[in-house]
Amino acid sequence: MRQDISFRSNGRQLLGHLYLPDQLAEGERLPAVVVVGPASSTKGQVPAIYSRRLSELGYAAIAFDHTSYGESEGTPRTDEDPFTKIEDIKSAATFLVHRPEVDATRIAAVGVCAGGGYAPAAAVADRRIKAVAAVSALPDLRSTVMAAGDWRAIMGAAQGSRESYEATGRATYVPFLADGQLDPWRENGKKFYLTERNQDPNWRNQTLLWSYDKMIQFSALDAVELLAPTPLLVIAGDQAETLGQSQALYAKAQQPKELFLIEGGTHFDFYDLPEYLTPALAKIDTFLKHHL
């Protein structure tokens, strides 16, 4: 069962969907999950896939467009701002607290890719989130940006785009996935985002250029040791291009924590492929049933 919902975050209206089990007893209050997608994602992609499957397992789950993405408010568009996204997660938790179907004492967050960094970072401050699962986590955006090339030149371009926007009102964008041959990780990303596997027509293959000067300031590794005693589950494929980042997140966190590797999986396999999604969600279900 899917319901259209909206809530406000930092004064902006965010649109999303609340997924509930098809059979819901009158007065029943469910454990709930805020699903946080990858960088650039919109609600009809990974958040919808995970939310739908979680509702089938008996959870209330929310998938939403972050500020400046999809159908939500915010300009300039497609601003990959980790700090705004973290505030959006807190606002989603506030929305869930007031839903009659939700047990406000049993709220969790599940994050995929960059969401696997945003979710634990939000839960460090927001103790209403009682458990966190990170799947194919990309929590260290600072190192990701720095590995992309001459990061100082990237920062210069980002600042130039800010000045241009102030002068002209026109935002400067770069492709999220560029044309031409990319590294194997991004080539695998094309197989999701640029094919029929991407189910959301509201997704745009673009990132606001000055997002990069925000991303370089963010690494969930800086604060994840403060997450405890909130439990953390880290799930990754043992062939994932981002396995090192998932392992770093696990290593930095304090107990209670768990690292769960799935044989053969690469980073993008956990976005939607049933042979990897199913065991990942089974593990998440076991984890949440134990901790919520």
Could you characterize what this model shows?
The chain is of the alpha/beta class. 37% of the residues lie in helices and 21% in strands. Helix 2 (82-97) crosses helix 3. The longest helix has 18 residues, at 151-168. The two termini are 22 Å apart.
What labels describe this entry?
8-stranded mixed β-sheet; 10 strands; 37% helix; Rossmann fold; alpha/beta
Identify the overall geometry. Answer: globular
- CATH-level-2 architecture: 3-Layer(aba) Sandwich
Query: What kind of sheet is the major sheet?
Result: 8 strands, mixed
> Could you state the order of secondary-structure elements as H and E?
EEEHEHEHEHHEHEHEHEHH
Just give the CATH class.
Alpha Beta
Q: How many DSSP helices? A: 10
Describe the strand arrangement of the main beta sheet, using strand numbers: 1-2-4-3-5-6-9-10
- Over the alpha carbons, how many angstroms does the gyration radius reach? 18 Å
Number of strands: 10
Q: What would you call the structural class?
A: alpha/beta
CATH topology grouping: Rossmann fold
Overall residue-averaged pLDDT value = 96
Number of domains: 1
Uncertain regions spanning at least 5 consecutive residues: none
Distance between the termini: 22 Å
Residues in β-strands, percent: 15-25%
Helix content: 25-40%
Q: What is the H level of CATH, i.e. the homologous superfamily?
A: Alpha/Beta hydrolase fold, catalytic domain
Detail the topology: elements first, then pairings.
Blueprint: E1 2-9, E2 12-19, E3 30-36, H1 46-56, E4 60-64, H2 82-97, E5 102-112, H3 115-125, E6 129-135, H4 141-146, H5 151-168, E7 173-174, H6 184-193, E8 207-208, H7 212-215, E9 232-237, H8 243-252, E10 257-262, H9 269-272, H10 274-291
Parallel strand pairs: 3-4, 3-5, 5-6, 6-9, 9-10
Antiparallel strand pairs: 1-2, 2-4, 7-8
